[in-house]
């Protein structure tokens, strides 16, 4: 496999890497997505009872993955933690009733090592040390992926989501971009379609579009261990 995205929640795949996933798939590269939770602690917007949110978000994710032409897709069922700073009624679900999230499941490292042995990805995209917004699931996923890659013995390029300028409250643990990809209009339109599939999270989608509009067409990443000029492709052979 050429590129594998590993994230904790449905919609984590599309904001920062949706255009890259689609472009690479259309160029004939093998792409994949592993999502660790059903996102049952998110908002429902009245579209379903809270206890059915995970099932509905799984359906949304599958539709988004189809639009992004993701070749390998796996949705796991680890519990989804309540976001930092969430208030009662803002983020509900069944996951944190039995666990605080993926951080309580170190066996994820072993599962990811198994997937790496099976898929043999050349590159992985996941969250950086601060999880972009310090969400506990994002931060835990960073740790688990990093550990799984180190333990796998494989040579895998690990890319972290890396906004060009972090919000002041999230600057700790931020890594500057080493790779920045401008998404062409025809790809951007499909990325927006994929974002629109996450209907239950429409407020998060709109917030991202409002606060980070330039990042819709600019996907930026930090390659672990890389020192050099900023590049425009994650994989040298991905150029059209």
Structure, briefly:
Keywords: Hydrolase. The chain is α/β, with parallel strands linked by helices and 240 residues long.
Topology:
Elements: E1 3-7, H1 12-26, E2 31-37, H2 53-67, E3 72-78, H3 95-98, H4 107-119, E4 123-126, H5 136-152, E5 157-161, E6 179-182, H6 185-196, H7 202-211, E7 218-223
Parallel strand pairs: 1-2, 1-4, 2-3, 4-5
Antiparallel strand pairs: 5-7, 6-7
Number of helices: 7
- Level of helix content? 25-40%
The largest sheet has its strands arranged as: 3-2-1-4-5-7-6
**Number of distinct beta strands:** 7
| Relative strand content | 15-25%
Q: Mean of the pLDDT scores?
A: 92
Strand-and-helix sequence, N→C? EHEHEHHEHEEHHE
Shape annotation: globular
* Low-confidence runs of at least 5 consecutive residues: 85-99
CATH architecture: 3-Layer(aba) Sandwich
Distance between the termini: 18 Å
Classify the fold: give the CATH topology: Rossmann fold
Give a short account of the largest sheet: 7 strands, mixed
Supply the CATH class: Alpha Beta
Walkthrough of the structure:
With 240 residues, the protein is α/β, with parallel strands linked by helices. Helices cover 36% and strands 16% of the residues. The chain is built from seven helices and seven strands. The protein has a seven-stranded mixed β-sheet with strand order 3-2-1-4-5-7-6, with helices on both faces. The longest helix has 17 residues. The radius of gyration is 17 Å and the shape is globular.
């Amino acid at each position: 496999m050429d590129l594998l995205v590993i994230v904790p929640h449905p919609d984590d795949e599309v904001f920062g890497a949706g255009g890259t996933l689609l472009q690479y798939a259309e160029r004939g590269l093998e792409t994949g997505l592993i999502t660790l939770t059903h996102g049952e602690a998110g908002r429902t917007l009245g579209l379903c009872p809270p206890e059915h949110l995970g099932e509905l978000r799984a359906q949304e994710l599958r539709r988004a993955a189809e639009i992004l032409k993701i070749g390998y897709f796996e949705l796991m069922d680890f519990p989804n933690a309540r976001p930092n700073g969430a208030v009662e009624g803002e983020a509900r679900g069944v996951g944190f009733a039995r666990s605080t999230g993926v951080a309580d499941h170190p066996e994820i490292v072993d599962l990811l090592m198994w997937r790496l042995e099976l898929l043999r990805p050349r590159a992985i995209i996941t969250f950086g040390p601060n999880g972009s917004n310090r969400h506990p699931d994002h931060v835990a996923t960073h740790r688990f992926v990093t550990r799984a890659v180190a333990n796998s013995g494989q040579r895998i390029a690990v890319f972290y989501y890396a906004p060009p300028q972090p919000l002041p409250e999230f600057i700790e643990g931020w890594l500057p971009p080493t790779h920045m990809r401008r998404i062409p209009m025809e790809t951007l339109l499909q990325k927006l379609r994929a974002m629109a599939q996450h209907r239950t999270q429409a407020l998060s989608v709109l917030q991202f579009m409002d606060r980070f509009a330039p990042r819709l067409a600019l996907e930026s990443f930090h390659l672990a261990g890389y020192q050099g000029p900023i590049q425009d492709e994650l994989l040298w052979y991905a150029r059209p």
